[in-house]
From TrEMBL:
Binding sites annotated in the UniProt record for substrate: 73, 129
PANTHER family for the chain: CITRATE LYASE SUBUNIT BETA (PTHR32308:SF10), LYASE BETA SUBUNIT, PUTATIVE (AFU_ORTHOLOGUE AFUA_4G13030)-RELATED (PTHR32308)
Protein name: CoA ester lyase
Organism: Marinicauda algicola
SUPFAM superfamilies reported in the protein's UniProt record: Phosphoenolpyruvate/pyruvate domain (SSF51621)
Keywords, sorted A to Z: Lyase, Magnesium, Metal-binding
Entry GO MF terms: lyase activity; magnesium ion binding
InterPro entries xref list: Aldolase/citrate-lyase_domain, Citrate_lyase_beta/mcl1/mcl2, Pyrv/PenolPyrv_kinase-like_dom, Pyrv_kinase-like_dom_sf
Cofactor: Mg(2+)
Residue numbers binding Mg(2+): 129, 158
Length: 291
């Protein structure tokens, strides 16, 4: 029976791994990431796609054997590679298929139909990485249940390129759009994963961006390099201050003096029952992450 007190599976660190790099594939399952995405799209050059596809089912099987949550990113629905990639998904049976350039509700309906026809019934993740996709988030959310949509994943490289915006370290130009991705995820009950940080040698920059993503409400961050895994897990786990606050809130509401109260004072601030729910979620998450 499912344990209702457990928090949902974590997606703090979601590592992209090029499907044509055997060494990276082998290493990926040992890095402590919460999920791995075997990439058939942008990480793989056109002349390497056929080989990458051929080796994909074995890579997915090896990761599953290692107990990893395993995803497969397929090429966009308009590309020549899409239908072949759907056949790979059917054979490999990943935990979810990541749909590149999921720009419209119709795109996802087409992808769902193609995956079903190929024999893959699992969930899909939508990459939100174009201005059109941002404008269509509500329509995409409304068909989430019909297409088995599980998560929204920000594709910040494509999005920034298409917006022709300049990316500073605070991603100021992208923030309104990232906030809309989180908004849609929360409205439609989906996982929200932030985009990648390209400068994999800049640890401080990565940590700053990961914390900013958490502050925006994302559940985790997509990654491109092993050096980013541990920092992402840390940034998206409850901090010591959060755990201390949550313990105090739970203890305060359990105090018989506060029996039946909707709102109480704690350290000079008001806390309500909605904060109690949040506090319990933080404690459950903290417990799961340390088990
Ligand atoms: C970014 C890289 C090309 C860097 O490669 P390289 O210089 O070879 O890295 P290192 O020498 O530092 O690698 C050290 C060891 O780590 C392994 N490694 C490297 N990357 C990965 C990985 N992603 N997963 C697992 N293991 C990895 C190497 O094999 C080395 O191992 P060892 O030999 O034992 O020392 C490279 O990191 C890379 O290719 N990263 C992934 C790139 C990718 O997938 N890009 C596409 C997804 S991102 C995207 O598309 C975003 C989105 O769509 C958007 O629009 O924003
Ligand atoms: Mg992209």
């Amino acid at each position: 029976m499912a344990d209702e007190n457990r928090s949902p599976a974590p997606h703090r660190s979601v590592l992209f791994v090029p499907a044509d790099k055997p060494r990276a594939i082998e290493k990926a399952a040992t890095l402590g990431a919460d999920a791995l995405i075997l990439d058939l799209e942008d990480a793989v050059a056109e002349d390497a796609k056929a080989q990458a596809r051929q080796s994909a089912p074995a890579a997915v099987a090896a990761w599953r054997e290692a107990g990893m949550r395993t995803l497969l990113r397929v090429n966009g629905v308009r590309t020549d590679f899409f239908s072949g990639d759907c056949a790979v998904a059917a054979k490999a049976k990943p935990d979810a298929v990541v749909v590149a350039k999921a720009n419209r509700a119709e795109t996802l309906l087409k992808v769902r139909a193609a995956l079903d026809a190929a024999g893959y019934q699992g969930p899909v993740w939508a990459m939100i990485e174009t201005p059109t996709a941002i404008l269509n988030l509500r329509l995409i959310g409304e068909i989430a249940a019909d297409v088995g949509l599980e998560a929204l994943l920000a594709g910040t490289n494509d999005l920034a390129a298409m917006l022709r915006c300049r990316l500073d370290e605070e991603r100021r130009a992208l923030r309104p759009h990232l906030a809309q991705i989180v908004l849609a995820a929360r409205a439609y009950g989906l996982i929200a994963v932030d985009g990648v940080y390209n400068d994999f040698t800049d640890r401080a920059g990565f940590e700053f961006e990961a914390r900013a993503g958490k502050a925006l409400g994302f559940d985790g961050k997509s990654l491109i390099h092993p050096s980013q895994v541990e920092a992402a897990n840390r940034a998206f786990s409850p901090s010591k201050d959060e755990v201390d606050w949550a313990s105090k809130v739970v203890a305060a509401f359990e105090d018989p003096e506060h029996d039946g109260r909707g709102a109480i004072a704690l350290d000079g601030r008001m806390v309500e029952r909605l904060h109690l729910d949040a506090a319990r979620a933080i404690l459950a998450m903290a417990q799961d992450r340390t088990e």
